[in-house]
Predict the structure.
Amino acid sequence: MRRLPPPPPSSEITPEARYLRRREILKSVGLFVGTAAAMGTGLVALTGRGRRANITAEPLPADLVVPPPTPAAPSGSAAARNPFTTDEPRTPYEDVTTYNNYYELGLDKEDPARNAKTLKPKPWTVVFEGEIKKPQRVDIDTLLKWFPLEERVYRMRCVETWSMVIPWLGFPLGKLLERLEPTSRAKYVAFNTLMDPEQLPFQLTDVLEWPYREGLRLDEAMHPLTMLAAGLYGKSLPGQNGAPLRLVVPWKYGFKGIKSIVRIALVEKEPQTSWNMAAPREYGFYANVNPLVAHPRWSQAMERRIGDLEKRPTLPFNGYAEEVAHLYAGMDLRMHY
Amino acid sequence: MTSAISTPDKPAAPRGGAGKLGWLVPAIVTGGLVPAVVLAARAARGDLGANPIAEAMNQLGLLALVLLVLSLAATPLQIVTGWKWPIRIRKSLGLLGFFYVCAHFLVYALVDQSLALRAIAEDITKRPFILVGFAAFVLLIPLAATSTAKALKRMGFARWKRLHRLAYVVAILGVIHFVMRVKKDVTEPAIYGAVLAGLFLIRIMDWVRKRGNKRGAARG
């Protein structure tokens, strides 16, 4: 008769309590992992934004593009200052086209690039009206053939204290206004963005009063630095940058650069402007870049050039004082901010 | 913001663990630190968009606000549901909030302002927006410093509780700071403000109810 193996000594038998707890421990590990993962993903989903969209834009027909004007400086002088083309490093295309304020396409900086698909820049008509001798409606393709497109590299200073250097393609607004022949009553220029919630879906919200409106004094509008842009970096404007036509006024805060323009009217009285209507204490009609006049909630003395870690001092009139300061001679710029 | 405050002390947990929910606090702390790791990884990859410093500050500030509001939700949640576990994670949530407030302030002071002390001092004194955020940060320090059981014992429960009511003030300041930061659209900060108001309302209703019960009992 075979003998059964001896039973294991009782000291080797796992106590029942511990056996049961082992299951409990496994369950606890599962609960730990599940809860930590849920908490982590929840928080990241709630607070982790800032993903970029991929940008595509068509090149503009090369035959439309000419070099920028050269300054009327003595030829041969190496220090000749050219306000039309700064030689500062250009902000990368990807940054220019994915970091935008265009509330009609979303409120976060990355939203307009993601949402711009709804904006159809063709066909597009711009209306010219008001105190001009030649009121008319013009198709964008016709308009862009009226004037050669110049590349101009301007600094762009946002009222939110960041800045960029952008190579625009466009033409001086003054040339267009000359062609439209302002009457003697024309004192200001008023601009409107397209009003169409199907193309600009955030117009269904009441963040601002739509359509977006901007304005310039006639002498500001006629200044050779002021331009209407149809492209940047040699390509047509992406929707998020204001396709197909936007205003660029390099010595003013970026919000003056109204996007996707459908109407330009010459008027007698100072026109209403969107940010001024929304918060008159914070955003004036002039909105000239001015390091000495703080925004009520933040200083305007410094700015961060996109791509830089350290801030740099902001220059009066965004560095264009030599060209434009005379427009405001005798004005109290603390009052007319 | 410490555990076992408004709940009677539980019997000591069995040796080697904090009872059935021993996994809960480590899980909350681990999960709460995940966004910091994700943010650091994205920063290292250059994946924070065109203005990474502003993006990092925004995310850290928002994380701080979310966690502080969550910590303030513990007691109301317990009042409404009767569950005990929210109280167990309240302190961890508050300290996580403090961690993100510190990170938010450090990115502002060290990176955004490059430690330009004069500019920082000017910001704090001249700009209500910065002052409000800074006040919230400063008020959180004593709360974090007295978050241990030892500190609670030393101060006595009544004094400790009174001090930690500041958590509500801090969260309200956080919401105001958020409102003042946005250029125009206040929807998102308004949501946090509404949640905070709801939480406060639950506490007030509970307080009124308890007071009524006490009176009723005294009269009867």
Summary: Chain A has a mean pLDDT of 90. Chain A is about 20% helix and 20% strand.
